[in-house]
Design a protein that fits this description.
The complex is a heterodimer of chains A (about 300) and B (about 775).
Chain A (H helix, E strand, L loop, with lengths): L1 H27 L22 H9 L5 H17 L1 H14 L1 H14 L35 H9 L1 H6 L14 H8 L36 H21 L2 H23 L3 H6 L7 H15 L1
Chain B lengths: L7 H19 L45 H9 L12 H11 L7 H10 L2 E6 L5 H13 L1 H4 L2 E6 L2 H15 L7 E5 L2 E3 L6 E5 H10 L6 E6 L7 H16 L4 E6 L5 H7 L3 E4 L6 E5 L7 H15 L4 E5 L3 H22 L4 E6 L5 H5 L17 E6 L2 H4 L6 E6 L2 E8 L4 E8 L2 H9 L7 E5 L3 H7 L14 H9 L16 H13 L11 H7 L5 H9 L6 H11 L12 H11 L5 H17 L4 H7 L4 H20 L14 H13 L3 E4 L6 E4 L5 E4 L11 E9 L3 E8 L2 H7 L13 H22 L1
The chains are: A mainly alpha (about 300), B alpha/beta (about 775).
Catalytic activity (chain B): ATP + H2O = ADP + phosphate + H(+)
InterPro entries (chain B): DEAD-box_helicase_OB_fold, DEAD/DEAH_box_helicase_dom, DHX15_DEXHc, DNA/RNA_helicase_DEAH_CS, HA2_WH, Helicase-assoc_dom, Helicase_ATP-bd, Helicase_C-like
Protein name (chain B): RNA helicase
Chain lengths: ~300, ~775
C-alpha cells in the first residue's frame, strides 16, 4: 500500500511538470511552429524529481504569475471552505497590501481585463489582488466594466451556491380562477405565505387521516390490521383448503404461473447471454464481502 | 309598554307579518317588490331613535339608572324589587327562588369588577369555566347596564348550537320572570322567536352572520356577546374578524368574547383587549391512563364503566364517545351488562342515558334526571351513566359527575380541497379537549378521569389545540357570505386562523362554476340572490334555477328535505320492517325522488287528518325531521316569493314530471356527479376529482346506473356517496357546459365517455337538421 501511494505521488509530480512544460511551449512558440500534440513524447525522457526539488522547480519557474495566482487560488479555496475566516484574512490582506501596491494594481487591473486570460499577463507580480469582493460569495469580482466576466462570475458554481436558497415555484395551476383572484389581491403563490392580515395563515390544507374503526388511541394500526387480515384470510383459506380438488387445481395453477415467469425471464436465452456462459455469479460477491469484513476488522 | 307599539319598528314588522299571511293564501301572487320598510332585516333603519327613551307607563327601578354607568349595587337593588323592572308586573315566587341560586354562581361575586372593565373598554375577553354561570348571567348583567329599552339597541348573545340558543333563552326568560319571545327571545335558522319588545336575543352565530349581511354595521345592536368562542366555529371566527372591523367604525358598539377554556391569551392578543377571568368551582381530578393501547376503545369504555360501577363509591359517570350509532350501541351493552351484574353480584341500579346533537330535546333533558335510588335502604348506591358526544365537553353542565371515561376520540369534520371531500372522521382529540373532559369529573367533588390510552400517547399523539372549524371546512358558503358582507380583500381579511390558500381558491372556483361569482370574483346577480337563502350555494342555485325546469315546487320540497337530518328511521330491532316501509316510497330512479315521495305521502296523510305522529311511527319516518322540513319549506317559500321566484310544477300525469326534477338537481349539483368505473362494477369515480366511491347501502337504487348525481360524500372506512339519483350524461353537457368543457378534463374514462356522448348528441342533431 505504502509503495503504491509514493509511486502515485511521483506520477502526480511528473504530470504537473509536464503541464508546466506544456504551458511554456504554448506561451513561447508560435502556434504554426508548435508540434502536434503528443509527437515525440516517447523521445522526451520523463524526469523524476525528488520531493525537495519540487519547490526549486516552482521557484525557478520563469513566469512570476504562477506563484501569485497560486496564492490567490489558495485564498479562493479557503474562502469557499472557511468563508468566515477567509473573509477576514482576505480583507486584512487587501487592507495591508494596497498601500504598497495600490497604484500598480489599479493600473494593471484597468489594463488587463481579467486574470482568466493568462497569455496577456506580464511578469508583474501584482495583479492577483482584486480591488472588490463579491458581497454574496466573498470572491474577488472581475472589474465592473467587464460584463462578460461579471456574468461568468455570477454563473460560477461558487457564486450560485452562496445565493440564498430559492425554493422551487409552487405547483398550483396558474390558470385557476381562484389563484387569479388571490394574486390580484396581492398573494404570491411562490412566496410560501398563507392568507390573513400578515399572510400568517397555514400554507397547506390539513390532511385527513383515516383510522381503523374502533382502534384505540396509540395502538399500532398496521400491525393489528395485518394480524386481523391474516386471521380472516386464514379462516377463509381453511374453508377452501378442505376441498382436495381445489388444492390440486391451485397447485397446478401455481406451477403454471411459475413456469410462465421462468419462461419470460429465461426463455429466449437473453439472460444467459448477458451473464455469460459458465460464470459463477454467486461466489464473487461473497468473497468480496469477506474481504471487506476483514478490512473492517483491522 | 303601550308606547312601544308606537315604535315604527314594530308597526313595520306587523305590516310585514300581515303581508306574509296574505301572500301565503294567494300562493305565489305576492311577488310585489318588497320595500326596505317591509324587510325585517332592515326594520331598524326606520327607527328614528327619538321615541325609544319615552317612559314606559310604569315606574321602574331602572328609571334612575344611567346607561353604561351603573354599579352592581344598583342592579342588585333593581333585581330585588317587588315589581319586575322590565315588564312592570309583580315578581313571582319562582323568580326569587331562582334569584337566590343565581347569587351563588361564581360570576356573581365579580359583577362589579365585570362592570368596571365593561365600561372601560370596547372589547372585553371574559373567561369562565363551564358552570360559572357566564352564559346566563353575563348577558343579564349587560342588560341592566345597557338598558336597551332606552336606545332600542338590542343585546345579542351568540351560541354555536341551536339547542343551546333555545334552552338558554328559556332559562334566562325564567330568571328574568318574562315570557320567552318577548323581552328575551331567540333566533335560529328557520325559527325566529323574538318580538318588537325583545331586549336580549340569544341566537346562533350563523344567524347573526346572516343578519350582518343586510346590516353591515350591526346597527340594531348595542352589545354583542360571542359565547363559547373557544369552540372556534366557522361562524364565530368570521364574526370575530367582522366585529373587529366594525368596532373601528362604530365606537358605541361593545363586544364581549366569552371563552370557557383558560387559554384565552390568543383572544386577548387578537383583539388587544383586557381579560377578566372567573374561576370555576373545581375539585382535583385524579387521572388514570391504561398501561397499553386498547384494541377496541368502545369495548374498553364499556368495560371501564362496568368496573367503576362495581368498585367505585357513589357518583355519576360520563363517557365520551363519537357518534349516535356508537353511543346507542354502548348504551345498550352497558344496560345489558349491568342487568347481569345486578342479578349475579347484587350491584346497584344504573340508569344509562345517551346524549347527542340529533337527539330530540325531551330525551336530552333526561340527562338531568336524578340517579336511581338503591334497591333497598343501605344497599349498593344507584348511579346514572351518560354516554355523550363532545357536546358534554364544554357547553353542558351536568352536576353529580364524578367519573369521566375518555377514549380520546371525537368526530371531526375535515375538508380536503384537492379532492373536494368534506367528511366526518373519528379523530384523536386535542390535549386541551382531554383536559376539558377530565375537568367534568371535578364539578361536585374530587373525581377521577379514566383515559383509555397510554400517557405517552397523550403526550405524543394528541395535538395541543383542536383545529378551528375554518381550517376544516368547505368555504364556498363562507366566501359567498363574506362577499355579501362587503369584504373585498379575502386575502388580507383579518381572521384569527386564516384558511389555507388552496381551500380559499377552491371555494372561489366552486362559486365561479355556480355563476355566483364572475371571473374577477365579484358577486353576480345570481350570487346576490343565492346569498339570500340560508342554504349551501349549490342548494340555493338549484332552487333559484328550478323554475326553468318547471318543477320549483318539487325542488323546494327536496331542498327542505336535504336541509334537515335524515327522515328515515331504522331502529336496530326492526331494520327489515323499516327497509320494507322505505321500499313503499322508493322511486327506481333515485333517493332524491324517494324523499319527495315520502314527503308527498306525509302531506297526504296530513290532509286526510291522520294522526301524523302515529303515521310517521308506522312508516318508520321521523316526525320531528319531517315537520321541521315542512317548516323549512315554508320559510324558503317566503324567501322565494319575496324575490319573485316562480313556484311551478309539471303536471304529475306528464311523463316528464320526474325527468324534470332529475334535470333540475343537476343545475346545482353538476359538480357532484359520479360515473361507474366499468360494467358489472359497483365502484364509481367522481367527475374531475377522480375519487373512487361506492353508493351508500341506504340507497333505493337497485339497477346500477352509469351516471349518478349525489348529495353528499361519506367517508368512513370506505368512501360512499349518499342520496343518489340516476341521471343522463347528455344533461350534463347541456345544463353545465362550462364545467363539462372537455378541454378541461384530464385523460381518462370519463373524458372518453363524455366525448362519445358529445359525438352522439351532435349526430342526432345533424340527423334532425337533415330532416
Amino acid at each position: 500500500m505504502l509503495q503504491r501511494s509514493t509511486s502515485s505521488s511521483h506520477h502526480q509530480m511528473t504530470s504537473r511538470r509536464d503541464a508546466n512544460n506544456e504551458d511554456d511551449d504554448y506561451d513561447d512558440i508560435p502556434l504554426q511552429h508548435q508540434r502536434p500534440f503528443g509527437t515525440g513524447l516517447h523521445k522526451k525522457p520523463i524526469a523524476f524529481v525528488s520531493a525537495s526539488s519540487l519547490s526549486t522547480v516552482t521557484q525557478t519557474q520563469p513566469t512570476a504569475t504562477k506563484p501569485t495566482t497560486g496564492a490567490s487560488i489558495a485564498d479562493l479555496y479557503l474562502s469557499m471552505v472557511l468563508p468566515d475566516d477567509t473573509a477576514t484574512t482576505t480583507t486584512s490582506r487587501s487592507k495591508s497590501a494596497p498601500p504598497s501596491t495600490t497604484p500598480t494594481t489599479d493600473t494593471t487591473t484597468t489594463t488587463t481585463p481579467s486574470e482568466s486570460t493568462p497569455s496577456t499577463i506580464t511578469s508583474q507580480p501584482t495583479i492577483s489582488e482584486p480591488s472588490q469582493l463579491c458581497p454574496i460569495c466573498n470572491l474577488p469580482l472581475p472589474p465592473s466594466d467587464d460584463p462578460a466576466g461579471l456574468a461568468a462570475h455570477n454563473a460560477s458554481l461558487a457564486h450560485q451556491l452562496c445565493l440564498p436558497y430559492s425554493p422551487p415555484p409552487s405547483a398550483l395551476d396558474r390558470t385557476r380562477m381562484g389563484l387569479t383572484y388571490l394574486s390580484a389581491h396581492g398573494w404570491d403563490p411562490d412566496a410560501r405565505r398563507g392568507l390573513g392580515a400578515e399572510e400568517q395563515g397555514i400554507q397547506f390544507p390539513l390532511k385527513p387521516r383515516a383510522r381503523e374503526e374502533r382502534l384505540g388511541l396509540g395502538a399500532p394500526a398496521p400491525a393489528r390490521k395485518s394480524k386481523e387480515q391474516g386471521k380472516n384470510g386464514e379462516e377463509a383459506k381453511q374453508g377452501k383448503l378442505l376441498d382436495a380438488k381445489k388444492v390440486r387445481k391451485m397447485a397446478v395453477e401455481d406451477r403454471k404461473r411459475r413456469e410462465e415467469i421462468r419462461e419470460e425471464l429465461f426463455g429466449d436465452g437473453r439472460l444467459e447471454k448477458y451473464l455469460g456462459v459458465g460464470r459463477v455469479v454467486q461466489s464473487a460477491p461473497g468473497s468480496r464481502a469477506g474481504e471487506r469484513r476483514r478490512w473492517l476488522g483491522t | 309598554m303601550a308606547d312601544l307599539s308606537k315604535n315604527l319598528k314594530r308597526s313595520s314588522t306587523d305590516r310585514e307579518g300581515s303581508q306574509d299571511t296574505k301572500r301565503l293564501k294567494t300562493d305565489g301572487n305576492g311577488v310585489d317588490a318588497m320595500s326596505a320598510k317591509a324587510n325585517p332585516y332592515l326594520a331598524h333603519l326606520n327607527e328614528d331613535g327619538s321615541d325609544g327613551a319615552a317612559d314606559r307607563g310604569f315606574k321602574s327601578p331602572l328609571d334612575k339608572l344611567e346607561r353604561r354607568n351603573t354599579t352592581a349595587d344598583q342592579a342588585l337593588k333593581a333585581e330585588d324589587s317587588d315589581i319586575n323592572p322590565w315588564t312592570g308586573q309583580p315578581h313571582s315566587q319562582q323568580y326569587f327562588r331562582i334569584l337566590k341560586t343565581r347569587r351563588d354562581l361564581p360570576v356573581s361575586k365579580q359583577r362589579q369588577e365585570f362592570l368596571d372593565l365593561y365600561h372601560a373598554s370596547q372589547i372585553l375577553v371574559f373567561v369562565g369555566e363551564t358552570g360559572s354561570g357566564k352564559t346566563t348571567q353575563i348577558p343579564q348583567y349587560v342588560l341592566y347596564d345597557e338598558l336597551p329599552h332606552l336606545t332600542g339597541k338590542l343585546i345579542a348573545c351568540t351560541q354555536p348550537r341551536r339547542v343551546a340558543a333555545m334552552s338558554v333563552a328559556q332559562r334566562v326568560a325564567d330568571e328574568l320572570d318574562v315570557k320567552l319571545g318577548e323581552e328575551v327571545g331567540y333566533s335560529i335558522r328557520f325559527e325566529n322567536r323574538t318580538s318588537p319588545k325583545t331586549l336580549l336575543k340569544y341566537m346562533t352565530d350563523g344567524q347573526l352572520l346572516r343578519e350582518a349581511m343586510h346590516d353591515h354595521d350591526m346597527s340594531r345592536y348595542g352589545c354583542i356577546i360571542l359565547d363559547e368562542a373557544h369552540e372556534r366555529t366557522l361562524a364565530t371566527d368570521i364574526l370575530m374578524a367582522l366585529l373587529k372591523q366594525i368596532t373601528d367604525r362604530r365606537k358605541d358598539l361593545k363586544i364581549i368574547v366569552m371563552s370557557a377554556t383558560l387559554d384565552a391569551e390568543k383572544f386577548k392578543t387578537y383583539f388587544n383587549a383586557p381579560q377578566l377571568t372567573v374561576p370555576g368551582r373545581t375539585h382535583p381530578v385524579e387521572i388514570f391512563y391504561t398501561p397499553e393501547p386498547e384494541r377496541d376503545y368502545v369495548e374498553a369504555a364499556v368495560r371501564t364503566v362496568l368496573q367503576i360501577h362495581a368498585s367505585e363509591p357513589k357518583g355519576d359517570i360520563l363517557l365520551f364517545l363519537t357518534g349516535e350509532e356508537e353511543i346507542e350501541d354502548a348504551c345498550r351493552r352497558i344496560s345489558l351488562e349491568v342487568d347481569e351484574m345486578i342479578r349475579e353480584s347484587d350491584a346497584g341500579p344504573m340508569a344509562v342515558y345517551p346524549l347527542y346533537g340529533t337527539l330530540p330535546p325531551h330525551q336530552q333533558q333526561r340527562i338531568f334526571d336524578k340517579a336511581p335510588e338503591p334497591f333497598r335502604k343501605g344497599g349498593r348506591p344507584g348511579r346514572k351513566c351518560i354516554v355523550a358526544t363532545n357536546i358534554a365537553e364544554t357547553s353542558l353542565t351536568i352536576d353529580g359527575i364524578v367519573y369521566v371515561v375518555d377514549p380520546g376520540f371525537s368526530k371531526q369534520k375535515i375538508y380536503n380541497p384537492r379532492t373536494r371531500v368534506e367528511s366526518l372522521l373519528v379523530s384523536p382529540i386535542s390535549k386541551a379537549s382531554a383536559q376539558q373532559r377530565a375537568g367534568r369529573a371535578g364539578r361536585t367533588r374530587p373525581g377521577k378521569c379514566f383515559r383509555l390510552y397510554t400517557e405517552s400517547a397523550f403526550k405524543k399523539e394528541l395535538i395541543e389545540q383542536t383545529y378551528p372549524e375554518i381550517l376544516r371546512s368547505n368555504l364556498a358558503n363562507t366566501v359567498l357570505e363574506l362577499k355579501k358582507l362587503g369584504v373585498e380583500d379575502l386575502v388580507h381579511f383579518d381572521l384569527m386562523d386564516p384558511p389555507a390558500p388552496e381551500t380559499m381558491m377552491r371555494a372561489l372556483e366552486e362559486l365561479n362554476y355556480l355563476a355566483c361569482l364572475d371571473d374577477d370574483g365579484e358577486l353576480t346577480t345570481l350570487g346576490h340572490l343565492a346569498s339570500e337563502f340560508p342554504l349551501d350555494p349549490a342548494l340555493a342555485v338549484m332552487l333559484i334555477s328550478s323554475p326553468e325546469f318547471y318543477c320549483s315546487n318539487e325542488i323546494l320540497s327536496v331542498t327542505s328535505l336535504l336541509s334537515v337530518p335524515q327522515i328515515w328511521v331504522r331502529p336496530n330491532n326492526a331494520r327489515k320492517r323499516a327497509d320494507e316501509m322505505k321500499q313503499q316510497f322508493a322511486h327506481p330512479d333515485g333517493d332524491h325522488l324517494t324523499l319527495l315521495n315520502a314527503y308527498h305521502a306525509y302531506k297526504d296523510a296530513e290532509q286526510r287528518g291522520e294522526d301524523l305522529k302515529k303515521w310517521c311511527h308506522e312508516h318508520f319516518l321521523s316526525y320531528r325531521h319531517l315537520s321541521s322540513a315542512d317548516n323549512v319549506r315554508a320559510q324558503l317559500k317566503r324567501i322565494m316569493e319575496t324575490h319573485g321566484i316562480e313556484l311551478v310544477s309539471t303536471p304529475y300525469q306528464n311523463k316528464e314530471y320526474y325527468v324534470n326534477i332529475r334535470r333540475a338537481l343537476l343545475a346545482g349539483f353538476f359538480m357532484q356527479v359520479a360515473m361507474r368505473e366499468s360494467a358489472n362494477s359497483k365502484v364509481y369515480k367522481t367527475v374531475k376529482d377522480d375519487q373512487l366511491v361506492m353508493i351508500h347501502p341506504s340507497t333505493v337504487l337497485t339497477a346500477a346506473y352509469d351516471w349518478v348525481v349525489y348529495n353528499e360524500f361519506v367517508l368512513t372506512t370506505k368512501q360512499y356517496v349518499r342520496t343518489v339519483t340516476n341521471i343522463r350524461p347528455e344533461w350534463l353537457l347541456e345544463i353545465a357546459p362550462h364545467y363539462y368543457d372537455l378541454d378541461t378534463f384530464e385523460k381518462g374514462e370519463i373524458k372518453s365517455a363524455l366525448t362519445r356522448i358529445t359525438e352522439k348528441v351532435r349526430r342526432r342533431q345533424a340527423m334532425k337538421g337533415g330532416k
